[in-house]
């Protein structure tokens, strides 16, 4: 295949268009408003593990750095604060360096927000959307509410350790051993890096075989922009879920953080960590904080990698098979 | 040599790992929904030929390895070293140690072109052509009229390799053999 040609076949792009039309009708039936928000924003994601791309632009303010959004979250929350009600978006999003069988630097995120929804209600709706898109043959088991697993329980089952209480030294050894790293490679790494490695290498591939699985109650340190609550062991956990199908992470949902002071503190903590590990700081979206001060309705939101869902629906081995021009030929 | 970051890792890239030159076979980005990204990499150690798996934090880098693959004809051996000559018209010769030949010593035949892998200008590995024609130097007498039956017997070839051949093959015949599997293919 010469590299002027699309990475996806025209036939696949037709099927993709049909699936996207089905997404739009799913939300139309539920009275969720489609919105479009900027791909370029004056603020970016401070998340230490997301690398933002930026562009220099000439604006009324002079030369200004604008950030390509890693997800449409901040702008959509500002719409919610302005009284939009339930909204969804198919948003081009950008994450530097992320290229592979399930990643592309530029990709399409399906993100939606449901004021007044509990995390469980949104999880069920996300499953309903996935079931509406996937042909029945992809799911070998009956389609119901996703099976739920607590993060802690998964580590007990697969690795016989408790992610909250096991000593850091033991986690580092275990993660290096099970993660194909040399014995002391993780000796300076924080707890979350060890947990991320074990989750990615050992646990994820087993999740959602022929059915949707939900992981809930992540450690509080992995809350991102979700609220926190105490689990039944008394540990702080993130009010978050992730949905998996056939070992592929499809969606990431939050009971959304609405406290502006907490939001500002998390941005600042992210940038402090960025300074510590030598990454560039990212301009904080002060307007999001202002929107939260104005008042964000309580509710839940979810981001779903629609390219991955299309990939699973069409049985394509690589993400590039369902994207018109992937990063290597864009 | 240049350093390569995990997002530049792709099949065929030669890098140094734990002091040995390696060739990248496969590189896959793995990332939990939120959190640290990793690259799960399969590498072939060019000194041992073994393929192993190693995980890197995304953004880590490895030093490139000065590795080249050149086509060379096998010339002769003096018992200590095996001599090869470049086929690009330069007639440049390289001496290869037994260690670098490994099991492939049994596929050496004069004037046949091999792929010779050089690391810092030293030969570390040879790769024979996928198929090679070699003469049978020793085997039990052929059984006439036995062509239909599926039986086989060992035959020693001129290069020293021993392969299983059909019962009807005789000494002095030239056979086409698959060097990757060591299987008899046909009469050449």
UniProtKB/TrEMBL annotation, chain A:
Residues 13-321 form the Aminoacyl-transfer RNA synthetases class-II family profile domain. One of its GO terms (cellular component) is cytosol. The keyword Metal-binding does not apply. It catalyses: D-beta-lysine + L-lysyl-[protein] + ATP = N(6)-((3R)-3,6-diaminohexanoyl)-L-lysyl-[protein] + AMP + diphosphate + H(+). Keywords: Aminoacyl-tRNA synthetase, ATP-binding, Ligase, Nucleotide-binding. GO terms for molecular function: ATP binding; lysine-tRNA ligase activity; tRNA binding. The keyword Cell inner membrane does not apply. PROSITE patterns: AA_TRNA_LIGASE_II. NCBIfam families: genX (TIGR00462), PRK09350.1 (NF006828). This is Lysyl-tRNA synthetase, class 2.
From TrEMBL, chain B:
Residues 69-124 form the Translation elongation factor P/YeiP central domain. Pathway: Protein biosynthesis; polypeptide chain elongation. GO terms for cellular component: cytosol. One of its GO terms (molecular function) is translation elongation factor activity. It comes from the Bacteria. Gene3D superfamilies: 2.30.30.30, Nucleic acid-binding proteins (2.40.50.140). May be beta-lysylated on the epsilon-amino group of Lys-34 by the combined action of EpmA and EpmB, and then hydroxylated on the C5 position of the same residue by EpmC (if this protein is present). Lysylation is critical for the stimulatory effect of EF-P on peptide-bond formation. The lysylation moiety may extend toward the peptidyltransferase center and stabilize the terminal 3-CCA end of the tRNA. Hydroxylation of the C5 position on Lys-34 may allow additional potential stabilizing hydrogen-bond interactions with the P-tRNA. SMART domains: EFP, Elong-fact-P_C. Keywords: Cytoplasm, Elongation factor, Hydroxylation, Protein biosynthesis. The keyword Ribosomal protein does not apply. The keyword Cell inner membrane does not apply. Transmembrane segments: none annotated. The modification N6-(3,6-diaminohexanoyl)-5-hydroxylysine is found at residue 34. It is found in: Cytoplasm. Residues 132-187 form the Elongation factor P C-terminal domain. It holds the Pfam family EFP. Belongs to the elongation factor P family. HAMAP family: EF_P. Involved in peptide bond synthesis. Alleviates ribosome stalling that occurs when 3 or more consecutive Pro residues or the sequence PPG is present in a protein, possibly by augmenting the peptidyl transferase activity of the ribosome. Modification of Lys-34 is required for alleviation. NCBIfam families: efp, PRK00529.1. This is Elongation factor P. It comes from Vreelandella subglaciescola.
């Amino acid at each position: 295949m010469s590299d002027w040609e699309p990475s996806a076949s025209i036939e696949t792009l037709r099927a993709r268009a049909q699936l996207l039309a089905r997404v739009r009708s799913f939300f139309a039936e539920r009275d969720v408003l489609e919105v479009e928000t900027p791909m370029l924003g004056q603020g970016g994601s401070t998340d230490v593990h997301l690398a933002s791309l930026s562009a220099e632009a000439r604006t009324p303010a002079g030369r200004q750095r604008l950030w390509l959004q890693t997800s449409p979250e901040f702008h959509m929350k500002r719409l919610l604060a302005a009284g939009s009600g339930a909204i969804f978006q198919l948003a081009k999003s950008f994450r530097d360096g992320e290229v592979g069988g399930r990643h592309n630097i530029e990709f399409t995120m399906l993100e939606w927000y449901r004021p007044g929804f509990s995390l469980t209600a949104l999880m069920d709706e996300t499953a309903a959307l996935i079931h509406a898109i996937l042909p029945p043959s992809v799911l070998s088991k009956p389609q119901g509410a996703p099976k739920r697993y607590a993060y802690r329980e998964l580590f007990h089952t697969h690795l016989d350790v408790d992610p909250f209480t096991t000593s850091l030294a033991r986690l580092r050894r275990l993660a290096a051993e099970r993660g194909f790293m040399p014995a002391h490679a993780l000796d300076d790494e924080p707890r979350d890096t060890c947990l991320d490695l074990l989750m990615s290498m050992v646990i994820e591939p087993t999740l959602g075989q022929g059915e949707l699985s939900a992981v809930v109650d992540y450690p509080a340190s992995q809350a991102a922009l979700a609220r926190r609550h105490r689990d039944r062991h008394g540990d702080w956990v993130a009010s978050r879920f992730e949905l998996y199908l056939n070992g592929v992470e499809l969606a990431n949902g939050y009971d959304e953080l609405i406290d502006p002071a907490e939001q500002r503190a998390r941005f600042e903590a992210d940038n402090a960590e960025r300074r510590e590990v030598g990454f560039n700081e990212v301009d904080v979206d002060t307007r999001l904080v202002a929107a939260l001060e104005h008042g964000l309705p309580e509710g839940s939101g979810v981001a779903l990698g629609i390219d991955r869902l299309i990939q699973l629906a069409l049985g394509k081995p690589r993400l590039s098979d369902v994207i018109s021009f992937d990063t290597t030929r864009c | 040599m240049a350093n390569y970051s995990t997002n530049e890792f792709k099949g065929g890239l030669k890098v140094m790992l734990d002091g040995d030159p390696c060739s990248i076979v496969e590189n896959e980005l793995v990332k939990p929904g939120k959190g640290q990204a990793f690259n799960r990499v399969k590498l072939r150690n060019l000194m041992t030929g073994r393929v192993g798996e190693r995980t890197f934090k995304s953004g880590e880098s490895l030093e490139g390895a000065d590795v080249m693959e050149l086509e060379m004809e096998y010339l002769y051996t003096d018992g200590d070293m095996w001599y090869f000559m470049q086929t690009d018209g330069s007639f440049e010769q390289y001496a290869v140690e037994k260690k670098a030949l490994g099991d492939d010593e049994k596929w050496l035949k004069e004037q046949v072109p091999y792929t010779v892998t050089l690391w810092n200008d030293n030969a570390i590995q040879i790769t024979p052509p996928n198929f090679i024609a070699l003469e049978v130097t020793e085997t039990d007498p052929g059984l006439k009229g036995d062509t239909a039956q599926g039986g086989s017997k060992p035959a020693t070839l001129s290069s020293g390799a021993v392969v299983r051949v059909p019962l009807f093959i005789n000494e002095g015949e030239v056979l086409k053999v698959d060097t990757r599997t060591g299987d008899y293919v046909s009469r050449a």
